[in-house]
Amino acid sequence: xxxxxxxxxxxxxxxxxxxxxxxxxxxxxxxxxxxxxxxxxxxxxxxxxxxxxxxxxxxxxxxxxxxxxxxxxxxxxxxxxxxxxxxxxxxxxxxxxxxxxxxxxxxxxxxxxxxxxxxxxxxxxxxxxxxxxxxxxxxxxxxxxxxxxxxxxxxxxxxxxxxxxxxxxxxxxxxxxxxxxxxxxxxxxxxxxxxxxxxxxxxxxxxxxxxxxxxxxxxxxxxxxxxxxxxxxxxxxxxxxxxxxxxxxxxxxxxxxxxxxxxxxxxxxxxxxxxxxxxxxxxxxxxxxxxxxxxxxxxxxxxxxxxxxxxxxxxxxxxxxxxxxxxxxxxxxxxxxxxxxxxxxxxxxxxxxxxxxxxxxxxxxxxxxxxxxxxxxxxxxxxxxxxxxxxxxxxxxxxxxxxxxxxxxxxxxxxxxxxxxxxxxxxxxxxxxxxxxxxxxxxxxxxxxxxxxxxxxxxxxxxxxxxxxxxxxxxxxxxxxxxxxxxxxxxxxxxx
Length: 496
What we know:
The structure is a single chain. The chain is α/β, with parallel strands linked by helices. The chain has three domains: 11-124 and 295-384, 3-Layer(aba) Sandwich (Rossmann fold); 131-286, no CATH class; 390-486, Helicase, Ruva Protein, domain 3, CATH 1.10.8.60. The protein has helices spanning 17-25, 32-48, 53-56, 74-85, 109-129, 131-146, 151-169, 178-181, 191-216, 245-248, 252-259, 271-286, 289-303, 325-339, 373-377, 390-398, 404-413, 423-439, 446-455, 457-462, 475-487, 489-495; strands at 64-67, 89-93, 224-230, 264-270, 305-309, 342-345, 348-351, 356-361, 381-384, 418-421, 470-473. The chain is flat, with a radius of gyration of 31 Å.
């Protein structure tokens, strides 16, 4: 299914909620209620685009709180959702805003980071669109390095440009003092000289075309060429500020690039590397950065998704006497961003009124109701994700596009080993994962990663030296590798 962006002005181009759930099902097992909620929220954003301009501003995003223990798919749902619609997406930990004293890191940094990601994404898209043109220009510059133009032809070319300048601007060429401007050639040449120069030009062009074909055929990839490239060194500036440089909202890189002259340096590199360097330089010349920034900010404002993880860590606890100043302070700092405010970034002002916020937390020792009332009101949709059972683990191992069984089989194939992981082995792995989660700590599907890595540890180590290239992983093999660890509770606590 083709990807669709939420910026679309045609509702038929956007994915339906059912299609969104079907796409999420390819990577995430179960959790239908959570998928349904994010699908509806995403579709509503596309519906908002179809409203009149005055009504669009009135329709607020339906922010979501996902409640569930770690490893049940909260982050994966948000990340896959953003990839599905190619929306700017950032994941932040709410707890990091309490790490340094009372305020912690500036909460507006999440919007600055989201804008930075959006600009990079749009710039990459624009670069891809001009790649063919940039490649052609880079090829011309490479040919100039491989076959420089003879000095006599350069002089003739300069003379022709002077003639064109004379014709276009009505300047009398006789009034120009050659000694004053220091021309290294005669403006007037004889017919014999002109004929000789034309022959030399034709030979040069023929040789250039032959080199162009050889360059396309890859015959010069390892040949070293000397190119002039922009120097990327910038002066070192250290900022002593409590909030760091992000609060000062000064783009020092751009400021110094405007003050200091552009510097170039010569560098000898292989043609293959030189082509990439020159392509990047030519692409940057072709891209309109003002249009890139404008498009990026529009995407952030209308399509951005912020995944606010561990929101339960900044919620108050009932056992505490009085409010927790640090936690409530962070909540009140985050509140204006979610309510809708204007954040100043180095690319310009960004409005957060229509950014979709998806919060998540385990809420083991606190409840969503422990959040301040104003923040609760900004998350009207709450959905609880279910803990995973043995059947879910079996499905996770085999059904998704990125299933663990497929991943480990593919890794072994790189060593020429064909691994057959049987159904009873999958059942045994799922049972062990469920058992360890029950007895040690429930970390959801992440337990499967731990068990699979331990299960294949010896096989991965011995794989390059194995003579037997066909391996069967069955229930007995799983028990042989893991049974002792699972039986010893203290050992499994440390290893699994």
